[in-house]
Amino acid sequence: MTRAISLHNVSKRYGRAPRAVDRLTLDIEAGEFLVLLGPSGCGKSTVLRMIAGLEAITDGELRLDGQLANDMPPGDRDMAMVFQNFALYPNMTNRDNIGFPLLVENPREDRGPRVDATARKLGIEDVLDRYPSQLSGGERQRVAMGRAISRRPSVFLMDEPLSNIDAKLRIQLRSEIAQLTREMGVTTVYVTHDQAEAMSLGDRVAVIRGGVLQQVGAPRDIYALPDNVFVAAFIGTPRINLVQGFVHAPPREGMTLDLGSQRLPLPEPLSVDHQLLRIQQGRPVIVGLRSEATRIGLPSQARPGEVPLTGTVANTDYQGHEALVYVDIGSEPAVVADLESPRPDGSPRRRRARPRPGVLGRLKGRTVARTPGPPLALGGSPRLPYNPYASYDPAAQRVGAGELVVRTPPSLWLQKGAQVPLLVDLAHLYVFDRHGRRVSPAPAEMLGEDV
Ligand SMILES: Nc1ncnc2c1ncn2[C@@H]1O[C@H](COP(=O)(O)OP(=O)(O)O)[C@@H](O)[C@H]1O
Ligand SMILES: [Mg+2]
C-alpha cells in the first residue's frame, strides 16, 4: 500500500510571525519520490511535519488518497519518518531498534524474519546484536532507515537524513535510499537543502523559498527551464552566472543584450523568444549563463547560435578532469537577495512593510547610464559587496563580481590577466525580468500556448 498526498493552499503560522509555509499547493503521486528543496528556514521541515500530523495546519487542506486528513491522528496516517539526528534508542540493540515499530504494531508477531529481511536490504546483518553507540555514523543511519522501513509504511518522510554523514558515505547512502524506496514503491517525501542530493534523488523536486513554492518539476526540467532567478541560482554547480543586463532594441537596428561594457548581438532574424524580449526594452534584466553556455573560442569558430564576447582571466581552478576559468567580462553581478519572491501565478508578493526599491531598481540609473564602451573596461566598475547565493554552494564562493565561470579542458592553461575570446551559446542563455521571472526562453503562456 502506498498513498497519494495532496496539499491545497496549505499554510502554517507560528504565532504572529509571517507564514512559515505560505499557501502551498502540491500533489504527490502514490509511489513518487518527491524532494522538498530550499535554503535553511524556508519551511521544509514544517511541511513534512504537517504531512506527518506532528504540526497543526493553520489553513488549507491536506488529503491522503483524496480523503481530507487535516485532523487525522499521526498514528492513523501509516507514515514513517527518518530524521537528520537518527534518534535510536541507545539501550536497545540494533535488532531491537529495527524491530521496535513492529513490536508496537503487533506484540505477538515474530519479528525475526522481517528484521532480518530489512537488515539484509540495508547490508547491516553483522551489526544487529550491537548497540547504536558501537556503530559508525553511516551504520547508525542505516539502522534508523531500517526502523523506518521494517514496518512497511505507506509513506516515508525523510528530513535531511544524510546531513550528519561525511561526504563520501553520503553519496553511497544516497544511491541506496533511491534504490530502496524505488524497490518498495513507497511514496517518499524527502527534505534537503542540498541541490545535488535533490537532483540525484527526486522524481520531482519542489523548490521552496520563504515558505512559498517556487517551482516543482523533474530535475531536468527545473534545471533547463527555471521559472525564476532564484531557482536558476539555487540549482546547478557551478552556480549559474548572473549578470545585470539591458535590452537594447533601437528602431531599425539589431537587438542586443548589453552586459555592462559589452553587448551580445542577438542574431537576425530574431527568434520568437528574442522578439518577445522587446517588451523588456529599456528595462534592466538579469542575464543568466550556465557554465556550459560559454566556451573559449574565436569568433571565426562560432557555431550557429553562438555569439562572441571577450573577457580577462581572473582566476583558474584546476579540478583534474576539467578546469574552471573565471573570466571577467566587465559586467555587474546581479544581486538577487532583494528580489521579491515571485508567486507561482506570477503576481507580486504582497508585503506589509513599505516596499523598498529592489537592488536592481536602485542600480537602474547606473545601468542605463553606462554606455557600451570598448570591448573591455576592467577595474573601475563599482562592485557589489557580496553574493547572497555564495553560501549555498561552495563553488560559488570563488565567483567574483561579474565573472563568468567557464569550463575548459584541464590541458588548457590560461594565465591570470590573459584576454580570452568567448563564445556564448544563445540556446543556453536565460533572461529574467526585474522581478526575477524568466522571460527568455519564453514561458509557454507568453507564447500563447496551452499549458
Ligand atoms: N515550533 C516553532 N515555533 C516557531 N517558529 C518555528 C517553529 N518551527 C519552525 N519555525 C519557523 O518556521 C520557519 C520554517 O522553519 P523550518 O520548517 O524548520 O525550515 P527548514 O526545515 O526549511 O529549515 C523558520 O522561520 C522557523 O524559525
Ligand atoms: Mg528543517
SSE diagram, text form:
Elements: E1 5-12, E2 21-28, E3 33-37, H1 44-52, E4 59-64, E5 67-68, E6 79-82, H2 94-105, H3 112-122, H4 137-149, E7 155-159, H5 167-184, E8 187-192, H6 195-201, E9 204-209, E10 212-217, H7 219-224, H8 229-234, E11 241-248, E12 256-259, E13 262-265, H9 272-276, E14 284-289, E15 294-296, E16 306-318, E17 323-328, H10 359-369, E18 403-408, E19 419-425, E20 429-432, E21 438-440
Parallel strand pairs: 3-8, 3-9, 6-7, 7-8
Antiparallel strand pairs: 1-2, 1-4, 4-5, 9-10, 11-12, 11-14, 12-13, 14-20, 15-19, 16-17, 16-19, 17-18, 20-21
Adenosine-5'-diphosphate binds next to α1.
Radius of gyration: 25 Å
Name the CATH superfamily classification of the largest domain. P-loop containing nucleotide triphosphate hydrolases
Q: What number of structural domains do the residues give?
A: 2
Biggest sheet overview? 6 strands, mixed
Give the class-level CATH name of the largest domain.
Answer: Alpha Beta
Give the CA-based shape: elongated
Q: Total strand count, please?
A: 21
Low-pLDDT sequence parts = 338-400
Counted by DSSP, the helix tally is 10
Percent helix range: 10-25%
CATH architecture of the largest domain: 3-Layer(aba) Sandwich
Which ligands, by name, code or SMILES, are bound?
Answer: adenosine-5'-diphosphate, magnesium ion
- Percent in strands: 25-35%
Question: In the CATH scheme, what's the topology name of the largest domain?
Answer: Rossmann fold
Which strand order does the major sheet show? Answer: 6-7-8-3-9-10
Distance between the termini: 32 Å
Structural class designation: alpha+beta
